[in-house]
Amino acid sequence: MPDMSPDEFTKNGHKLVDWIADYLNNIEKYPPLANVSPGDILKRIPQTPPKNGEDIEKVLVDVDKLLIDGITHWNHPGFMAYFNSTSSMPGILAELLSAAFNANGMLWKTSPAFTELEKAMMNWFRQMVGLPENYWGIIYDTASTSSMHAIASAREQLNLCIRENGMTGRNDLPKLRLYCSEHAHSSIEKGAITLGLGLNGVKKIPVDENFRMIPEKLEQAIKEDISKNVKPFCVVATVGTTSTTSVDSVEELAAICEKYDLWLHIDAAYAGVTAMIPEMKWVTSGWDKADSIVINPHKWMFTPMDLSIYFTCKPDILKRAFSLVPEYLKTQVDDEVENLMDYGIQLGRRFRSLKLWFIIRYFGVDGLAERIKIHITLAKEFADWINNEKDFELLAPVPFSTVCFRYNPGGLSEEELNQINEKLLDEINKSKTIFLSHTKLNGRFTIRLTIGSIRHERRHIFQAWEVIKTLARSVS
Ligand SMILES: *Cc1c(COP(=O)(O)O)cnc(C)c1O
User: Rounded CA gap, 301 and 88, in Å?
Assistant: First the structure.
């Protein structure tokens, strides 16, 4: 029984590429945020699968008919929520090719070009962000996975035989503790849950007025734990926190890690790519003292989901934690090559490095850096507008491309301000022109605007500001 015929594939493939080009070119005709209720899309899909095959053209038509109004358009320049992740056309082409090869990079032998292109791209990207040569890189799906592997490595380094004996039912194990700031991403706690450290295995350290982990408080917590026979093993520093994009002082945290012999992991999922910009080199201060670092090109480097890069200067420990080779996966070249399955929990892996190869070659390092730099400049300009408007205020510094602010017309209590800003955000997102998200900073409801789309131009930021100002004055 055959696959789709080459003629049919070519015809529909061209049609789909045309559809994608048209979609991206006219994306502003859609609202950025989907306007459907829970269950609306599910209702449109038949409850049982088709017994007989259907024409693929019918499926393509149904993308417009059944799905499109349930899509939140991450590629829309009005999408300024969370950390916007946008796909670029070279990245889309690479995804198509990846599906065509369908190569599984579990072993070198199962596709030598897969393993070696990934190695080459890790070497390129390492240089792009200015890391020394002793950092080895691998691609995982998400930062959550990358950080989980960092925590697993930190634990493996303790030589507690956890790989062999696990953690349960053992009275020879101390309680282990990991430290991160109150503003660290939830993925760190999820990693701790996954690895059996538990949420209580994570201690959240308070932050200063600029939302940076206070090093003295970290050292205090470590000392206190040691005095109670709890074993500190890992510190996660965040370079670009999720709420405010604050940057922990890696240099100071690294000194503490050195003193107490702790694994230092840097979560730079969002902001790490800014290291490509010559004027932003300060963000990498202290990185050469880290044991591991995660950066997500799928956040701010125009790479379609998903692609997270994990660097470590101790790949041997990662391998020691995870390598397990059954007979059927042994090959004759195992001594000469790197088999990527040895460096994590997954066996099968997608050919993600193609996306980096296409994107870095198409835009060039300067082209990528320039685009990211423009976003930072636009965010600073937006922050200036906020600062110069009497009834608005910034609620956090703006080191990158995310601005935290609120409407504050004066004379209102904190509680009233929270209510009015929550209402304002709701109105903004109902306007169908922009999509913003929020956070809470010291109990204050905070509106967050992020710039980072490959389609962001100054006019979009200006329009967003007009919408925000107009709606603010109508909710008050
Ligand atoms: C987005 C983000 C994450 C999680 O990234 P995923 O790739 O979605 O797992 C982790 N840490 C920080 C700082 C982030 O901004």
Answer: 9
| 39 Cα–ligand 1 center, Å | 28
Which of the listed residues 148, 270, 439 should we mutate to test ligand 1's pocket, taking the one with most ligand atoms within 8 A of CB? 270
pLDDT tens for each residue of 126-172: 999 999 999 999 999 999 999 999 999 999 999 999 999 999 999 99
Substitution candidate for ligand 1 out of 74, 83, 141, 144 with most atoms within 8 A of CB = 144
Please give the residue range of the domain that contains residue 441: 360-475
Residue 123 is predicted with a pLDDT of: 98
Tell how far the Cα of 190 is from the centroid of ligand 1, in angstroms.
12
- Residue 42 inside a domain? The answer is no
- Length of the chain measured in residues: 476
Q: Which residues form ligand 1's pocket by a CB distance below 6 Å?
A: 83, 142-144, 185, 187, 238, 240, 242, 267, 269-270, 296, 308
| Average pLDDT over every residue of 278-293 | 97
In a domain, 216, yes or no: yes
**What six digits make up the tokens of 26?**
């006219």
94 sits in the region (left: phi over 0; alpha: psi -120 to 50; else beta) called: alpha
What pLDDT digit, counting tens, does each position of 101-133 carry? 999 999 999 999 999 999 999 999 999 999 999
Rg (CA), the chain: 24
